[in-house]
Design brief:
The chain is an alpha+beta fold. Helix content is 32%, strand content 29%. The protein binds one RNA strand of 77 nucleotides through strand 2, strand 3, helix 3, strand 12 and strand 17.
Length: 427
RNA sequence: GCCGCCGUGGCUCAGCCCGGUAGAGCGGCUGGCUGUUAACCAGUCGGUCAUAGGUUCGAAUCCUAUCGGCGGCGCCA
């Protein structure tokens, strides 16, 4: 008897054949002469019926919600069954008899989060995790096709990437180290030998942000490459984004539809994206009544206003130098403007930040000092400008933020299996 | 860091404004019924109302503090 996945049966591959499935009990309805079992595996759900005179009856009676089992029977088309197919059981083998499962039909946000390790079994989380896997795969495919090399940066770091207070500190034997908040500086090291490099790795932020778009540990997709400028950067980012969206729309259509996501939103992502300068953004916002002046950073409200204006992914570039990090390259004739670009999407705001990196040693040293940082902390970074410096660009994209936009998730915690927020880190 | 909201059986909630013996649904258990679709009917078990203090003859209810959770802003991806 063939051991099959549930999706195969639902697809009609085993009509009127004897099959065996392995999975978990999702629902059970018990009658005097008939038991209905809704069994799930990683691929879907199928209704199984157990009749009173079946040898499977005794074991089926004992089954509880979320018990694991093997079930053998005949796959039959049946209009009364959800999915159009059911398995008429001939034998049931209990693998793990479940205790009373705590998640029932009445659920609150709080409870679902308290039992995250069990909630991950839900259909919804299952679908999101599968799409997440595909999005990662599409991303890697795109980088690979563009001749990028995937590299593995460290998570333990000895100095701040941006000199901020948002780092998690930790004891490293008898030294103080930090968890990385970006792998950018390490990618910059590697472009001198591998040229185009990227990584998909965690970044950690100790910001006490309490919003639906912040995690303290998130997956950061970062790329860095030499001999490139702002135009190359924006072109790459928009092509990457469009590729991911269109591939997802094409390859994950059933999952997207089951999640209630409008597939056309993703299928219709096309390049080039709208691009406006920071200065234009400020003007546009002022016309709409916002009280901000050139030099002010764009807050979440401003980003949302702009995003509503475009209704799709777009870029804001050429920010004031003063609100950007020390490594941002500035225009030689306009040092008050930095070659920095953010990609924004509706509802979320920033999904990525990138830019040209300062490649002139003298300018970089001045910038480090102006920001109140110590050049001693960045000696190896300065070495990169001493030995064969090269113009280069790079960016970092928040994977979970991307997924929130793509899948219309209500909260970023649902874009990652084990979310870490300021208050949640269990299990 | 600042601001707002929430905490009552295993789960979801009502009761709180206006103080007077703690309620319902779901789940569990028992029985009945049914090709069921997170079924239905009857019965039953189950709560020191987050914690601590205060006001009061009397506090789930009013006041104070603490703890836990959620969200908004700031900061960021």
């Amino acid at each position: 008897m063939a051991l099959v996945k549930i999706c195969e049966v639902l697809g009609g591959c085993h009509e009127n054949e004897k099959v065996a499935i392995r999975g978990w009990v999702y629902r059970k309805r018990e009658g005097k002469t008939l038991i209905f079992l809704l069994v799930r595996d990683s691929t879907g759900f199928i209704q199984c019926t157990v009749k009173k005179d079946s040898p499977a009856w005794t074991e089926a009676e004992r089954l509880t919600i979320e018990s694991s089992l093997t079930l053998e029977g005949t796959a039959k088309p049946d209009k009364r069954a959800p999915g159009g197919y059911e398995i008429v059981a001939e034998s049931v083998g209990i693998i793990g008899l479940a205790e009373l499962f705590p998640i029932t039909k009445d659920q609150s946000e709080q409870f679902i989060r308290d039992v995250r390790h069990l909630w991950l079994r839900s259909r919804r989380m299952n679908l999101v995790m599968k799409i997440r896997d595909d999005v990662l795969q599409f991303s890697r495919d795109f980088f690979k096709n563009q001749d990028f090399t995937e590299v593995s940066p460290p998570m333990f770091i000895s100095a701040a990437v941006e000199g901020g207070s948002t780092l998690f500190g930790l004891k490293y034997f008898d030294q103080n180290l930090y968890l990385t908040q970006s792998s950018q500086l390490y990618l910059e090291i590697l472009i001198y030998s591998l040229e185009k490099v990227y990584c998909i790795a965690p970044s950690f932020r100790a910001e006490k942000s309490r919003t639906i778009r912040h995690l303290t540990e998130y997956w950061h997709m970062e790329g860095e490459w030499p001999f490139a400028d702002m135009n190359d950067l924006m072109r790459f980012e928009e092509e990457l984004m469009a590729y991911i969206c269109r591939q997802t729309a094409e390859k994950c259509k059933p999952e997207l539809e089951e999640l209630g996501v409008d597939v056309s939103k993703l299928a219709s992502v096309k390049t080039p994206f709208p691009k406006i300068t920071y200065t234009e953004a400020v003007e546009l916002l002022r016309k709409k009544g916002a009280k901000l002046k050139w030099g002010d950073d764009l807050g979440y409200e401003e980003e949302k206003t702009l995003a509503e204006e475009f209704g799709k992914p777009f870029f804001v570039y050429d920010y004031p130098t003063a609100i950007k990090a020390f490594y941002c390259k500035t225009y030689r004739d306009r040092p008050e403007v930095a070659m920095s670009v953010d990609m924004m999407v509706p509802r979320i705001g920033e999904v990525s930040t990138g830019g040209a990196r300062e490649d002139d040693k003298a300018v970089l040293i001045k910038r480090i000092k102006d920001m109140g940082l110590k050049t001693e902390d960045y000696e190896w970074y300065l070495d990169l400008r001493r030995y064969g410096t090269v113009p280069h660009v790079g960016f970092g994209m928040g994977l979970e933020r991307l997924l929130v936009w793509m899948l219309d998730l209500e909260n970023i915690i649902d874009a990652i299996p084990f979310p870490r927020t300021t208050r949640r880190f269990y299990p």
